[in-house]
Each structure stands twice: as C-alpha cells, then as structure tokens.
Amino acid sequence: MLSLMSLGAGGCGGYYILTVPDQLAKTGGRVVPVARLQRNDFFVLALAMPGQPMRFGVYATAAAADEAAQNKPVPEALRSPERVCRGDKIGYSAVEIPMYENPIANRPGKYYLKVALQDYEGEQIAAIVPLYVWDPAKSVVAVDLDALPREAFPHSDQAAAAMRKIARKSNIIYLTRNSKATQHSRHGRLDREDFPDGPVLLWQRKRWHIVRSGKLRIPKIIIESRLDSQLGQLKLDFPKLSLGICTSPLAAKAFVRAGMECIVVGNDWVKGSTIRHYKSWQDLAERGVE
Predict the structure, then answer these.
(1) To which H or E segment does residue 115 belong?
(2) Percent helix, strand, coil in the chain (nearest 5)?
(3) Is residue 212 within 8 Å of 219, Cβ to Cβ?
(4) Contacts of 59 (CB under 8 A, 6+ apart)
(5) Homologous superfamily, domain 1-134
(6) Which one of 160, 178, 188, 219 has the largest count of C-beta atoms within 10 Å of its C-beta?
(7) SS3 sequence, 224-276?
(8) Nearest to residue 288, comparing CAs of 132, 117, 110, 168?
(9) Which stretches of the chain are DSSP H helices?
C-alpha cells in the first residue's frame, strides 16, 4: 500500500511529492480530503505545484485501490466515482465526499482513499491512505502516539494491552508530532506491536512551503497548516471524543484546551482539574479508563 507521502519517479527533471493524511468521517457525514502536490526539480527544493488536476476516489479494499493506482480495471462494487479538483496556487487540492451518497463507504468500516495525478507529459503519481468511517454515537479516545513505548522498550507490551482494552468499547485516534515518518511506517508499527488500528493524524502545526511567484519566478515561503488535525473539529463530528491519553504536559494541555478529560501516564506532576493520573501503562491496562 502506498504511504501518506508518495514520490513519483521522474527522469533527470526531478520527481513529484504527493502528501495525503489518513481520513476520518462519521456515518451520514462527509469527508473533505486535502492533498498537497510538490515537485523537486533540482533535488534540493520541494516547490508547490499549482493547478494540477488531482483525482480522488474511494475503494472498498487496499487491493482495489492499488489496482486503480496502476490503471487496472476495478469492479464497480469495489469503487466509487472519482472526483477531480485542480490544485490551488500553493499546490493544495480538496474535494467533498458525502458518506451518505457514497456507494462504498456508507457504513462504519475501514476503506481506502486514492489520490492520483497524471500530468500532461504522462508522468503519474498516486497515494493511498486509510479512510475510517465511524458511528458518531460510539466513544472515541485520542492517544498521543509519541507517548507509547516503542517495541522492545520497557512497558511496550503493557501499553499495547491497555490500548486493546480501551478499543473494546471505543474507537482510537492516534496523534503524532513526527511529520517525517510515513503513514505506512506508522501503521506498520501499530500492527507489528499489536496496538489497535486507527487513524494516525498530525498534531496541529505550521508548515513552510516554497512557491515561485512574479515574473522572475522567485521562490518565496508561505506558512499554513491545512493537513493537520484539529481536536475542535474532530469533537464536532464525534461528540463522544472526550478523553485523551498521554505522558507529556504539552499533549495534556492540548487535550484540556479542547475541553477533554486527560489521562497522564507516569508523570504525576502534570496537574489540572480534568487530568487523571495512572502510575504506569500496566496500571492503565489493569484498571482501564473507568
């Protein structure tokens, strides 16, 4: 499966970079996937690619999405009609996909979004990411992915056990500040270390983009943050997103600021009226979120 950030192979003229986050929608709602297209023409600067026609499609399985990315036929029962949008002046494109109209992803489950480009020279690039469709009536817990112990580190098994216990009654959203890892590697880690599946989203942060403007096409920097998660918007779609789990005061502050309860594992010096403390991941695995 292709990852969040895909590199389109090119000749000596460089290559495309297509970035698409995991997608999350509620049943009966809509999803507005945002993609960013850049091109590295000199293998130094990743420049925004404006005005390119990007194709968005939803598929029932990862295999069907992969087949479509290779321009192979996919049965209608496994795909939805594609939508096309031209990117803006800094390379961003987005479409609205209503879940209630979508013949594939109109019920809770895990589906796949494919975003693709074929430019006027015939060069192609595609990215495939999970699309999670959840019942908004079900509980949702947000977890700071960066707080979870890595495989072979102390307490990693206990952390995984705690997450599996929570996942019996709640859907899980993972949040990370590690923007360099690919979605493929993030989901690979969750699967390898036996954590429950769920969308992996970036904590909100500002991004620096380089675009060319003016008659001389001089590079300039633009700052924005459209690819990143916002807990406030997630809470509007999923009103039962009311709990966050972390170890750091920074993540705890973000959860509390969003009006959520927060469980802090280990660091009992992190204080707040809506913060609960657990001594360890083993403690959380045994007690659950109560």
Answers:
(1) strand 109-118
(2) 20, 35, 45
(3) yes
(4) 65, 68, 74, 78, 79, 80, 104, 111, 112, 113, 114
(5) Immunoglobulins (2.60.40.10)
(6) 160
(7) ECCCCCCHHHHHHHCCCEEEEEECCHHHHHHHHHCCCEEEEECCCCCCCCCEE
(8) 168
(9) 62-69, 156-167, 183-192, 231-237, 249-257, 281-287
Q: Which residue has the tokens 């990007």?
A: 54
**pLDDT digit string (tens) for 120-146?**
888 899 999 999 999 999 999 999 999
Can you read off the two tokens belonging to residue 20?
Answer: 């698409």
| pTM score | 0.86
- Residue 254 β-bridge partners: none
Instruction: Write out pLDDT tens, residues 204-254.
Output: 755 555 555 666 555 555 555 554 567 888 999 999 999 999 999 989 999
CB atoms within 10 A of CB 216: 6
Q: Which DSSP letter does residue 188 get? A: H
